[in-house]
């Protein structure tokens, strides 16, 4: 099965029906229906009820649907889970994760609710958000704390606030955290997702930041406006040259594999397993079916 | 159940509906006043949806005022439920 793309994950305020009902047509890979920071304290109940109703009715097409609930240490976290978990959105995003115990407490409630609703084979995965210095310090253990975690993400705004620094356009204050979270996520085979770029009018800044986070290993980025989707996709989409090269690598890999050869060369450069894996990633991002390549090599 | 407090949920934004609940005396029945930008086309649908939620929540006596700006059915359901629960004191919200 092709890897699910998470280049763009668009935050949508959980109390905004107009945006939620259009979520499937923005062209992003995933939407994050937000019950946390995007919802005023006195509207938490209304947002929770609205998201629950929308999840049951709205067509999201191929867009992955994630719901960000409130932290379990707030009066809203458990109530969010009680309403959302029975509906099994694609994922739930758990904010301000600071320790393995946080994950255990959260998952205990998730599993209890699933059991109470007779959900024997839950499909919903978990995204953990690292937004505090303590969370960054514990990130490797957090990333491996539960097998249902399939992505880890950095919350830049809260992290800079927790560190007592200002988030600057060059991202220097959160650079160490970004890299540490990437390594922890990769070590556990997770998708690692970047924080938002807050200035929707600065397209060049968004592009530069996206190019940087792609280079250091992020699989995608959270967005706050549909206008940011295309710019992020352009960065994450492979170029034509990259696709051609990947196609050639994978074709030769299949041909050599069929002949029982492990390592081979293309244009004098060695091709081994990591090179093939990179080629597969490029082809998947370009929506090219690997089976079609395998069949064309065989014929 | 009978609403105890004045309560509201929703907004006047497009695709939303503002629902206001006023307590009435027991045995007063339901009074539902709707105004909508799509009144001619959907008044009956909006009213049916509101009544369905009130039935589900077992609310027989209430004055409900709805000001609709083209909300879809799930939005109408959500706003009525939120307003009723606030009026019952089950959940906190505005007003």
TrEMBL record, chain A:
The keyword Phosphoprotein does not apply. GO terms for molecular function: catalytic activity; magnesium ion binding. Its cofactor is Mg(2+). Substrate binds at residues 68, 131. Keywords: Magnesium, Metal-binding. Mg(2+) binds at residues 131, 158. It holds the Pfam family HpcH_HpaI. GO terms for biological process: oxaloacetate metabolic process. Residues 7-226 form the HpcH/HpaI aldolase/citrate lyase domain. InterPro entries: Aldolase/citrate-lyase_domain, Citrate_lyase_beta/mcl1/mcl2, Pyrv/PenolPyrv_kinase-like_dom, Pyrv_kinase-like_dom_sf. This is HpcH/HpaI aldolase/citrate lyase domain-containing protein. It comes from Marinifilum breve.
From TrEMBL, chain B:
Pfam families: ACP. GO terms for cellular component: cytoplasm. It is found in: Cytoplasm. It comes from the Bacteria. InterPro entries: CitD (IPR006495), Mal_deCO2ase/Cit_lyase_ACP (IPR023439). The modification O-(phosphoribosyl dephospho-coenzyme A)serine is found at residue 14. GO terms for molecular function: lyase activity. Keywords: Cytoplasm, Lyase, Phosphoprotein. The keyword Phosphoprotein applies. Its main location: cytoplasm. This is Citrate lyase acyl carrier protein.
């Amino acid at each position: 099965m092709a890897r699910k793309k998470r280049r763009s994950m668009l935050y949508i305020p959980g109390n905004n029906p107009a945006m939620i009902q259009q979520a499937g047509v923005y062209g992003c890979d995933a939407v994050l229906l937000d019950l946390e920071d995007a919802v005023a304290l006195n509207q938490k109940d209304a947002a929770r009820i609205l998201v629950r109703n929308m999840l049951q009715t709205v067509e999201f097409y191929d867009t992955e649907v994630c719901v960000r609930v409130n932290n379990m240490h707030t009066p809203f976290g458990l109530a969010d889970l009680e309403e959302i978990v029975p509906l099994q959105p694609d994922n739930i995003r758990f904010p301000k994760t600071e320790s393995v115990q946080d994950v255990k407490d959260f998952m205990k409630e998730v599993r209890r609710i699933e059991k109470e609703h007779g959900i024997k084979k839950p499909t919903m995965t978990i995204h953990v958000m690292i937004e505090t210095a303590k969370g960054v310090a514990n990130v490797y253990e957090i990333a491996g704390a539960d097998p249902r975690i399939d992505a880890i993400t950095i919350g830049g705004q809260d992290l800079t606030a927790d560190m007592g620094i200002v988030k600057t356009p060059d991202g220097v204050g959160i650079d160490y955290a970004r890299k540490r979270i990437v390594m922890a996520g990769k070590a556990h085979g997770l998708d690692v997702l970047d924080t938002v770029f807050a200035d929707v009018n600065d397209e060049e800044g968004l592009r530069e930041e996206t190019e940087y986070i792609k280079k250091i290993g992020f699989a995608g980025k959270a967005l706050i406006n549909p206008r940011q989707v295309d710019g992020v996709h352009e960065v994450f989409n492979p170029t034509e040259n990259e696709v051609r090269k990947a196609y050639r690598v994978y074709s030769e890999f299949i041909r050599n594999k069929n002949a029982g050869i492990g390592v081979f060369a293309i244009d004098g450069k060695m091709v081994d397993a990591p090179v093939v894996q990179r080629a597969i990633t490029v082809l998947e991002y370009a929506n090219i079916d690997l089976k079609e390549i395998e069949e064309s090599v065989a014929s | 159940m009978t609403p105890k407090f004045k309560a509201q949920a929703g907004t006047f934004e497009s695709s939303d509906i503002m629902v206001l609940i006023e307590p009435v005396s027991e045995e007063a029945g339901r009074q539902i006043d709707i105004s909508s930008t799509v009144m001619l086309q959907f008044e009956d649908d909006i009213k049916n949806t509101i009544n369905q939620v009130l039935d589900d929540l077992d609310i027989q006596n209430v004055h409900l005022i709805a000001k609709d700006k083209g909300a879809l059915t799930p939005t109408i359901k959500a706003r009525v439920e939120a307003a009723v629960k606030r009026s019952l004191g089950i959940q906190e919200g505005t007003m």
